Amino acid sequence: MEKTDIKSLSFPELEGLLLEMGEKPYRAGQVFGWLHQKLVTDFGQMANLPQRLRKGLEENCFLAVLETAEVKVSRIDNTCKYLFRLADGNVIESVRMQYHHGCSVCISSQAGCRMGCRFCASTLEGLERNLTASEMLEQVYRIQQQGGGRVSHIVIMGSGEPFDNYENIVRFLRLVSDERGLNISLRNITVSTCGIVPGIRRFAEEGLPVTLALSLHAPNDKVRQKLMPVAKTYPLDEVLAACREYFEKTGRRLTFEYSLVKGVNDNPGEAAALARLLKGLHGHVNLIPVNPVRERDFVRSDKRAIQEFKEILERAGIAVTIRREMGRDIQGACGQLRRSFLEKQADRSPGLGKENEGG
Ligand code: SAH
To answer: Is this prediction's pTM over 0.90?
Structure first.
């Protein structure tokens, strides 16, 4: 019989499991607290449970725990990049950022990604697999335990497309915001999507007041399709209609991410078109100077072009910020650390590594 991933179970599911094992209902509160508040890594640490129950849990369940393979700390701003090893040997990355208002963790939702965005390192080798809810929780739990200090904010902006792993994302969000667990406010959580319309629509119905970030990156379908293959499936008018619906149902303001790539999506005409496109959409634009990825030939826009782009949006009454760059010295961009780790591994074990599929 396959063992149950106990850390991915909701409170009622855990109650059900314990009842099946012949335990009293109050045990669910104890076990849930050990898993999601005390963040134990072993059933043996559940000190107030009888030996019998600990043994039963060990026989029926497994505890997903991430192993820290590497940590890089930025000397510029203290941003930490973590490389975690999953139980099956896959590696994923997460980032911890310290801000005035607290500590924010950026987590991955998949190992690899199959969306194929042209400027992104996460997608170069395609999708390995979806992460489970417990593997997403663990990124937050290990960082909280190792980083010292409570994690207050989460952004699902690491590798992977959250709505390509829908059920596990929703399960993760309910668990991480559970008051019997870490109790992180859903209002402090952002989910970033490349624009999978059915995912956005369905997410609007979940009753989860998280911030939705849309990776826009272009003011029209033509340019967007050049950068993001997903734009061929979901045209901008449908994506933005779904975003509007998300705002209307949840009352949460939207974020539009726009990575500026020199000569591709950064001219003043495109800024003006973007302003027209977003008029009345209750969101703000986050301009991201594109992070150069070795395997791609994209170049970051000049400082002046970025500033001008921003001013055009501002003059049109669109709220806009230029994203502060964090951890530039430690391969802060999506998927870069994982990728260089996989390459190093391939160098060490010739024949076992993956072929380099990157362009
Ligand atoms: N799949 C989701 C979340 C992951 S990427 C999404 O597409 O939104 C998080 C953000 O970083 C996205 O806006 C993505 O387009 C952007 N991004 C990825 N690689 C980048 C790079 N090299 N430079 C700048 N932004 C990048």
So the answer is: yes
